[in-house]
Amino acid sequence: MARFFKYKSVADLAAENARLGIDLRFSDDFSPLAAPATVGPQTVGNRWCIHPMEGCDGEPDGSPGELTFRRYQRFGGGGAKVVWGEACAVTDDGRANPRQLWLMDKNKPAYARLVAECRAAHRAENGDDADLLFGLQLTHSGRYSYRRPVIAALDPLLDPRTVADKSTGATVGSDYPLVTDDELKRFVDDYARTAKLAAEVGFDFVDVKQCHRYLLNELLGARSRPGLYGGDYENRTRLAREIFQAIRAAAPGLILATRLNGYDGIPFHKEPDGAGAPDAHTGAAVNGWGLSAADPLVPDLAEPIRWVGDMQRLGVRLVNIALGNPYAQPHFGRPFEYPPPDGYESPEHPLVGVDRHFRIAAAIQAAYPDLPIVGTGYSYLQEFLPHAGAANVRDGRVTFVGVGRGALAQPDWVRQLRAHGRLDRTRVCRTFSYCTALMRAKNHPFGQYPTGCPPFDKEAYGAVWKEVRGE
Ligand SMILES: Cc1cc2nc3c(=O)[nH]c(=O)nc-3n(C[C@H](O)[C@H](O)[C@H](O)COP(=O)(O)O)c2cc1C
Ligand code: SF4
């Protein structure tokens, strides 16, 4: 198995960058990361964002569980000034797993506790929380809903990989019914209702999730879908537009945000030698977002850039750029050193994947210099992620530096940086993918194992990891 990450210094990484012919940038001056930024009406105290990351540890009724509370205390205390709360379903049928969060009227007090504890931890460790933004990602999982796939548009490459309907056993293919326009319209109320609840329990923003090939992302690329919500650009963006408008009406003070795929890509599979390779395809993909018509392995940002501008006009004030589909090609979304169990060895140097993230976010930021953009792809850089973040913020390539797995391994990295000028080297995410492996582990009485960072958060996940591995 090829291993890539052998870098002992920024100079090593810069040399690799030159060798690979990519555009990673590094800076030792971290001051751009400490500068405040403005999101809608709010001042945000620094340029660090914790990405949305599901712990798959909610209660069956959708409330946060004890591990969920623990995670947001740790994230709140960590020092990042944007905490982007994880995927939270707007309906039971839209949950990706039986432990995914699901905010409802009857579990509001538990969510109010989650917000209060995150903010209290922030105050305790960092002083003021007036400049902390805490949001919640609202989702419908579409084809990845665990009870039954909700399919917006058929996809010849993804359909055979999609888990069958649990109750009927129906598999996704040409005779599987598409979700109807009327059913889609009803989701508008689900999003608006959940957004209003999110505002009432104290979240500062909601993210209308349009990434990772869940429902609203699939609709963005649903060129083959007939009716009001498929075909041309206007139709494919219609449901999200209706949702943004409904949320603005239902919760006027709430900041609108979105996590948007810049590029979907197509599925990859594992070759006999373990390496990843794109599924066989001919020319243009039938459906998909941000893909070049000539070659779906090449991004085309024309529509994503147009859509970000339209969303800004609809009142969206914060955009987090993601890539790919975690089930179909994990290397796009989460450049890794060790693959997840349902994955493959990285088919490209993972730094090329990091560079793809940075370039796509930079192109969108360049198109809208005044709109705060959050970038992704930093955890692969391990202890050098602050150097890349500082250079990207300095150069206006992003407004906020988003950290995913790195925050599971070392949630207090911003405080470490403040106190010592560097990360704690004993707790840096090494992109081992154990967290993704736990997400894929379902053989649990609740139908889903919780996830976190077994190597660097043994206290909470050491035993869980042993159980999943059958040790
Ligand atoms: C355990 C785990 C859970 C995740 N859950 C979510 C989620 O709820 N919503 C989302 O948009 N992305 C989710 N992601 C993706 C991350 O937000 C992030 O995009 C990805 O890990 C790449 O960033 P990184 O390289 O800093 O880890 C998850 C990732 C992991 C590892
Ligand atoms: S398990 Fe921990 S070290 Fe491994 S990828 Fe996840 S966060 Fe990083």
UniProtKB/TrEMBL annotation:
It comes from the Bacteria. InterPro entries: Aldolase_TIM, NADH_flavin_oxidoreductase, OxRdtase_FMN_N. One of its GO terms (molecular function) is FMN binding. Keywords: Flavoprotein, Oxidoreductase. Residues 34-264 form the NADH:flavin oxidoreductase/NADH oxidase N-terminal domain. This is NADH:flavin oxidoreductase. The lineage of its organism: Bacteria, Pseudomonadati, Planctomycetota, Planctomycetia, Gemmatales.
